[in-house]
């Protein structure tokens, strides 16, 4: 008996589902613009964004060229956005911006498109073309709408994306260092700062530039060591002049003393030099820990900003009140 009840319940549920499905399919195939328009907003306000998007999509064919056209286009995009289909939402918002530049929805659609572009960017190890696309769109939006209510979020997104590009450039250069191709590493680090002097990893880049020149000189044949150690001296003095209190300072000081000895310019004794290096090695763990904490702070800059701040996106809207 219990088994029969379960079968009956399952059959009724399947019948109900099929009925709802057939009604929805009938709605999609309907040519009644008013019926579909009302149903689309009913689904939207009920939080059924996937169905709302489907109805708005089918409705867009009927309302093309009418006064409802931009409204349908906007809420089609917004439904996809709420359903977290950011790729389709971005396409819909972009179409609205291209076809209806004077629509009352244009500013908000432009911002939502930015958020879609931002969400389609990748972590620093991967292709950064979407990051450049998002940054260009952010710059255009902030220029076009300087008083927009989302300015803080836009700045946060811009900062995060720029930090990602900084990390990408820094890590690409550091790859040569890890491969022990110190000549190429120094050139790569120099080029990073040539392209972007304000890179957030500037201190680390200057450090690795100096370390690359030192190790390149150290591994060179004796006849070329002098000129290459002099390159390190220039890099060392450049670093010290810019970051005299850096936690990297003591390690580079040790490299500098060894260089001075190699160049015959060290005025102290070998015992004094050895003692200073032993003292530095005792402090090395502290130096490394300190630098690790600093880098962790920089990594936090790359965390995704909270774009859904209170008051920006409402859960439900009196959508038809805005609609034409």
Defining traits:
Serine Threonine Protein Phosphatase 5, Tetratricopeptide repeat, 324 residues, 0% strand, mainly alpha
Q: Would you give an account of this structure?
A:
The chain is an all-alpha fold and 324 residues long. Among the domains are: 31-105, Tetratricopeptide repeat domain (Serine Threonine Protein Phosphatase 5, Tetratricopeptide repeat), CATH 1.25.40.10; 164-300, Tetratricopeptide repeat domain (Serine Threonine Protein Phosphatase 5, Tetratricopeptide repeat, Alpha Horseshoe). Helix content is 75%, strand content 0%. It has 14 helices and no strands. Helix 2 packs antiparallel against helix 3, helix 4 packs parallel to helix 6 and helix 10 (202-218) runs antiparallel to helix 11 (222-242).
